[in-house]
Amino acid sequence: MDPVIEVVALFLGFVSWIMVGIAIPNRYWKVSTIDGTVITTSTIYENLWMSCATDSLGVHNCREFPSLLALSGYIQASRALMIAAVVCGTFGVVATLIGMQCSKAAGDNYVLKGRIAGTGGAFFLLQGLCTMISVSWYAANITQEFFNPLYPGQKYEIGEGLYIGWASGVLAICGGACLMFSCKLGTKEKTYYQPTRETVYSASTSKRDAQSTYGRNAYV
C-alpha cells in the first residue's frame, strides 16, 4: 500500500473522529425557528442531552432531559449511534496506526500490517455510517415537524451540530474507503527458486555424461 494513502486516510479518519467528539456535546442540533414570528423573546436550542433557552438579554438557561425512557425513540437511537461512532473511530485510529508501514508494532510482516490497516478502514466506515444515520435521522424529524402544518408544538431548524456530524461522516467514509480499497490484504511476496550447490553439481554431471555418450557414439 502506498504510504501517502495511509497518511491521508489516517488524517481523514482522525479528523472525523475529533469532529464526532465536537458534535456530540454541541448544543445547537436544532434551533427554534423565527419563521412566521413577529416578536422573538427567546431562542430555544437542543441537542441529544439537554434543552437550552436564551432570552433577549442574552441570559442562558439549560436543563438536561430528566428521563431517558421519556425521550423520543429517534433521540435514544441517535445517542446510541453517536456513542458507537466514537467507539468505532477509536478502534479505527488505533488499528490504522498499528497497520501503517512506518509502524514497528507488527514487525516487518507487511501482509499482516495491510490486514490490520484494512480493519481500521472498516472501523472508519462504521463510524461514518453511524454518524450519518444519527444526524440524518435527527434532521429528518426536524424537517418533518417544520413542514407539517398541523404540528402544534415549537418548530425548529437544523443547527450547526448536525452539519459538523455530516462533515465528520463524510470524512470517515472517505478515510475508510481509502484504507479498504487501497491496501493489499492478500498480497504475498513471491518466492524465487534459487538452485543449490547439489542441484548445480548434478546438472553439470548429467551434462558431462551426455556429452561423453554422444562422443562415443560419433565414432561408431
From TrEMBL:
Pfam family, one: PMP22_Claudin
TM ranges: 7-24, 80-100, 121-140, 160-181
Function as written in the Swiss-Prot or TrEMBL entry: Claudins function as major constituents of the tight junction complexes that regulate the permeability of epithelia.
Protein name in the entry: Claudin
Organism per entry: Carassius auratus (Goldfish)
Gene3D superfamilies documented for this protein: 1.20.140.150
GO CC entries: bicellular tight junction; plasma membrane
Principal location class: other
Alphabetized UniProt keyword annotations: Cell junction, Cell membrane, Membrane, Tight junction, Transmembrane, Transmembrane helix
The keyword Transmembrane helix is annotated on this UniProt entry: yes
Localization in the cell: Cell junction, Tight junction; Cell membrane
Assigned protein family: Belongs to the claudin family.
Bilayer topology term: Multi-pass membrane protein
InterPro entries: Claudin (IPR006187), Claudin_CS (IPR017974), PMP22/EMP/MP20/Claudin (IPR004031)
PROSITE patterns: CLAUDIN
